[in-house]
Amino acid sequence: xxxxxxxxxxxxxxxxxxxxxxxxxxxxxxxxxxxxxxxxxxxxxxxxxxxxxxxxxxxxxxxxxxxxxxxxxxxxxxxxxxxxxxxxxxxxxxxxxxxxxxxxxxxxxxxxxxxxxxxxxxxxxxxxxxxxxxxxxxxxxxxxxxxxxxxxxxxxxxxxxxxxxxxxxxxxxxxxxxxxxxxxxxxxxxxxxxxxxxxxxxxxxxxxxxxxxxxxxxxxxxxxxxxxxxxxxxxxxxxxxxxxxxxxxxxxxxxxxxxxxxxxxxxxxxxxxxxxxxxxxxxxxxxxx
Amino acid sequence: xxxxxxxxxxxxxxxxxxxxxxxxxxxxxxxxxxxxxxxxxxxxxxxxxxxxxxxxxxxxxxxxxxxxxxxxxxxxxxxxxxxxxxxxxxxxxxxxxxxxxxxxxxxxxxxxxxxxxxxxxxxxxxxxxxxxxxxxxxxxxxxxxxxxxxxxxxxxxxxxxxxxxxxxxxxxxxxxxxxxxxxxxxxxxxxxxxxxxxxxxxxxxxxxxxxxxxxxxxxxxxx
Lengths: 289, 223
Known about the structure:
The complex is a heterodimer of chains A (289) and B (223).
Chain A: H1 7-17, H2 21-33, H3 37-56, H4 72-81, H5 88-106, E1 110-112, H6 122-133, H7 138-158, H8 163-166, H9 172-186, H10 191-205, H11 221-240, H12 249-262, H13 279-283
Chain B: H1 3-6, E1 10-12, H2 16-33, E2 37-45, H3 46-51, H4 57-65, H5 78-85, E3 88-93, E4 102-110, E5 115-124, E6 127-133, E7 136-140, E8 146-152, H6 157-167, E9 172-179, E10 185-192, H7 198-205, E11 210-216
Helix pairs in contact in B: 2-4
């Protein structure tokens, strides 16, 4: 991926080669890894299929090993069925999908790390739900996954996608940023709008710390997937409405790195600070086998 | 880094370091002991000891010992499957100085009574690093073709082993040699640019004083 290390370079490359952003991401990776565009496409299509299987395989009766997770997506589904949801059917379905995937991960089901296991619910929640609601064909969803991967690759190069390095902003924040750009592609937006959506999403989640209760990928991780998905939706909508991020995406990514470097180690996945250090958080001890 | 390191891996949750990485560790121990493991003693260190159970780390390690991949949906049931297959295992904790927080020390015995002790860490993203084999220091990940040779320490054995690779046109990218004492046990870890074929293993195994030869070719971990 040495061919681009910023959103600006990715968009310039797309312009220069006359290829859409998603295709630019695919071809750059194929050249770097020595694989064919067809085999790359098959791999990406398989990721979409694993995401869908995980979503459909959700069982509200399942609980995690610690007993901290499970069943919440089922409660959300009941609530949607009651017709009382504040956010309406589409957005509340995105919330339920984010919870389903987060709970699947906590309950040791098969998922796609996107970009991490803890943040695996954001991208599929928005893409699968919006694509289904708007009857968007699978090929376009696969293209959107390339856009997400391109944004994630830039973030990984300029900052981090690891909670241990830069806190939750690097996991849920990156996932929301990737998902926002992917949504813009799904809905036919331009490369500039993708980059802008990525900036808007991450800006909203800068500073988010990684403070998992008991050190487990459960509390608050599962529900932060909902936060990430909602941020991705609103950021994509703002970008498609023509609203600009005053700070460009690359500078937002750089800011995330700076904030991550200043973050205390107790707030970077150690399970020693924040929610993990609350009286209730401390009472949740690790199960034994 | 590939875009499929950003989207991916496909894995059984909940944690790339504590679950997917733990499966990989078990797989490497399986390869190093050779054959079918029948007994294993697994000592968890650091964060593996303190948060492992909630991450399914013990089940992931046992799954790896049976050759399951990190995306195998049988991982949560690995204890029960191990019982059916006749793999006995016990867990404990250990304090390892200078090791990464996500580490384990695993002793495995195979169906021929052969034993290996492996120390390994899982720093993140499902990747692992072996730092010790049978008490001798090592450093390898298995992400490139790797040959592990356990033998007696004797004059000329390094050149005889590397001679086999040279004759097969395999280029070495890294060579590590350690021994317990002069004339004691020796460990050689060779990372290569090309896939290591089976005939290399056969040729090296035939050399006098060589006890065990293990090939790790990426993508063939569970075979």
